[in-house]
Amino acid sequence: MIKLFLPLCILFLMSGCKKSELEAVNSSPTVSADKAVEVAAYEVEAPTPPKEISQKLLPDVNQSAQPPITPKKIDTIAKKIIKNGNMKIQVGDIKKAQTQVGDILKKNNAYIQSEQFQNTDVDDNLDLVIRVPHKNFDALVNSFSDGVGSVLSKNISSDDVTEEYTDVSIKLANKKIYLEKYRDMLRSASTTKDMIEIQETIRELEDEIDLAEGRLRLIDDRVNYSTLNLSLYKEKVRSSATSKIGFGSRFADSVTQGWNSFMSFLLGIISLWPFLLIIPILIFLWRKWKSGRTKP
């Protein structure tokens, strides 16, 4: 009997343990589910990583889909070079040389800005101020050097005005911005005094803008068209009649020149006759005054 009772107790205890374990197992999913919900909610509410890190973690496809960020374009000013030159050429015939110069100018799309001719007893001079496109300047100078005559002097210079042009352009752009702001202020001005002050400022800005734009146009003109000062020179040859003058002729010329000088001097004195009349009057008055002082 005792042998049967002990195994039954052992079985009873084992069944009780298994039951408690089953209850623990059945109740554990509910607790773990709640904890899982809490963990899931915590994970959802967790802060997102920084932008830099998230961009690094994004795949290449997403990065390529975003539009590229291009830097703001900054306008650059090309170099501004002003070329000038001076040339003096001795020629045998001024008219023939002038025709040659005209042909060279047509070939290089140049033109004459000013022309001055001087005829003396010693030589003939034709001075030309020529404007030529910048790209044709060197070809023009070479053409004059080769086919017109003998070059007596030549001076070519280049002046880089890029810095000045850039400075004027920047100041001009800023002044235009200020001008628009002052015009907006003028529209919203409430008092007459403010309107007058703003209008005066606008007028000064407009004058400065006009000057700056004029300076830029002048620089562009000097850059686009170079300037060449060309002088055609012809020395006159003295004829035999004038080169072989004898002593007698020279003596007669000297006497004539002396007589002409004397006549000029005499006529100059005669032209002073009003002063010659005043002198005797002054002498008479002085003597009369002196005699009056000597009387007792």
Describe the 3D structure:
This protein is α+β, with helices and mostly antiparallel strands. It has a domain at 80-239. It has helices spanning 2-45, 51-57, 60-65, 94-107, 137-147, 162-187, 192-224, 240-243, 247-270, 273-294, and strands spanning 81-90, 111-119, 123-133, 150-160, 225-235. A 5-stranded mixed beta sheet has the order 2-3-5-1-4. Pfam families: DUF4349. The chain crosses the membrane at residues 262-286. It comes from Chryseobacterium lathyri. InterPro entries: DUF4349.
Q: Cα-atom Rg, whole angstroms? A: 54 Å
Number of helices: 10
General shape: flat
Terminal Cα span = 202 Å
- Helical residue percent band: 55-70%
Mean pLDDT: 74
Order of helices and strands: HHHEHEEHEHHEHHH
Largest sheet entry: 5 strands, mixed
Structural class: alpha+beta
Low-confidence stretches: 18-74
> Strands of the largest sheet, in order across it?
2-3-5-1-4
Work out the strand percent: 15-25%
Record field, number of beta strands: 5
Coiled coil: 188-222
Keywords: Coiled coil, Membrane, Transmembrane, Transmembrane helix
Pfam family, one: DUF4349
Protein name: DUF4349 domain-containing protein
